[in-house]
Specification:
By secondary structure, the protein is of the alpha/beta class. It folds into 2 domains: 199 residues, inorganic pyrophosphatase (n-terminal core), CATH 3.90.1640; 122 residues, Diaminopimelate Epimerase, Chain A, domain 1 (Roll), CATH 3.10.310.30. Strands 3-2-1-4-5-6 form a 6-stranded parallel beta sheet, with helices on one face. A 6-stranded mixed beta sheet has the order 7-8-9-10-12-11. Helix 5 runs antiparallel to helix 6 and helix 9 packs across helix 10. It binds manganese (II) ion. The site of manganese (II) ion has 6 residues, from loops.
Length: 334
């Protein structure tokens, strides 16, 4: 049980509070941060939610009063320099804050790590509120708000519901627990339109995304008794499909959904000479150990890493590494 009272006290003794989440933000980070934003403004705090990336259009519904701002040094540096506290949601790694994190450090702002990713004990965080067993950071936000006896408003509930829905694959992944459903019930009680949120987030695929997915499906590779499915995405494929980086979100989950596949592996060629590596597991194999051995990290069944090198080399290396790990790792259930 986390010491929410101490977080409550820290918030009470702060006047100006910066909220943020990781680059390329997802539903959990944005939903958590918006829910807490609505709480903090309700209790009279001078609060801003500033992220390093552009807000993805499918999460625009969380931004009705334009409360989510994309970092701009001209607009934000003065304000940030006077902040007493920063609360960072779902970040996994401080570096994923980019310049927002640099400003927090440069101004020696007390920074709170509010997350369900494994604790990296980054010294740039003053306090850690970490619960690895939480399905989503949004579940922790719910606990915190309950601990201070807040009745959820619709705006808060929209954020919390979005966080829990996206991090549990719409209440389907193995991390889904009783509490996720209890939170959903309470969100429904205050009027969250759950099917509308689902459609907004998941049923807005672009033509480029589907074209790219078609190319991947046609070039899927299987090994290790079909338990490992892997694919790579080159910049050439991206150009041909007229796709953007965000379009690849969810592809690894999709490949993992194939019958008999236990682990999906994606290697994505960035434009800067690095490759992004993604692992998804159905639950038989723990795969963040592989990600860690490649310098990355993440959750037990959803993890990733970055690696220098061209696509073919990285793919070969990662594939070799993955197959060694899968043959060594006792399956999770044994
Ligand atoms: Mn999360």
């Amino acid at each position: 049980m986390l010491d929410w009272k101490s977080l409550h006290n820290t918030i009470n003794s702060s006047a100006r509070i910066l909220l943020s989440t990781h680059e390329n933000p997802d539903g959990d980070g944005l939903g958590s941060a918006t829910a807490v934003y609505h709480y903090l403004t309700k209790i009279g705090k001078d609060c801003r939610l500033i992220i390093i990336s552009d807000l993805p259009k499918e999460y625009q519904f969380l931004n009705l009063d334009n409360i989510i701002e994309t970092y701009d040094s001209n607009l934000h540096d003065d304000w940030i320099s006077q902040a007493d506290l920063a609360i960072i949601f779902d970040v996994g790694d401080f570096n994923r804050l980019r310049q927002v994190g640099e400003k927090i450090s440069a101004n020696s702002i007390k920074a709170i790590n509010f997350d369900h990713h494994p604790d990296l004990k980054d010294k740039r965080f003053s306090d850690n509120y970490i619960q690895i067993t939480a399905a989503a950071t949004g579940e922790m936000v719910y606990d915190f708000l309950k601990s201070v006896n807040v009745n959820l408003t619709l705006a808060m509930a929209n954020g919390i519901y979005t966080a829990v829905m996206t991090d549990t694959g719409s209440f389907c992944y193995s991390n889904t627990n009783q509490k996720c459903h209890q939170i959903a019930i309470e969100c429904l009680d205050v009027g969250v339109n759950t099917s509308q949120i689902y459609q907004t987030v998941y049923e807005n695929r672009t033509a480029g995304q589907v074209k790219l997915l078609a190319g991947i499906i046609n070039n899927l590779n299987f090994s290790d008794n079909h338990e490992l499915a892997w694919f790579s995405i080159s910049q050439k494929m991206m150009k041909n499909a007229n796709a953007i980086n965000k379009d690849i979100d969810g592809f690894s989950d999709f490949v993992r959904s194939i019958q008999g596949v236990e682990v999906a592996l994606m290697v994505f060629e960035n434009t800067n000479g690095t490759c992004r590596i993604n692992f998804r597991s159905k639950g038989k194999y723990i795969i963040n150990t592989i990600a860690k051995s490649l310098g990355g990290g993440g959750h037990k069944f959803a993890a990733g890493a970055m690696k220098n090198g061209d696509l073919e080399d990285v793919l070969n290396d990662v594939l070799t590494e993955t197959r060694i790990h899968l043959s060594k790792i006792d399956s999770n259930f044994s």
